[in-house]
Amino acid sequence: MHQHRTLPPYGRDWLAQVFQCQASRNKGVIRRQVIDVEREVGVEALVAEVKRRRFRLIRTPTHFVIVCDDGPVEVVG
Question: Does residue 42 come out as left (phi exceeding 0), alpha (psi in the -120 to 50 range) or beta?
Answer without folding.
Answer: left
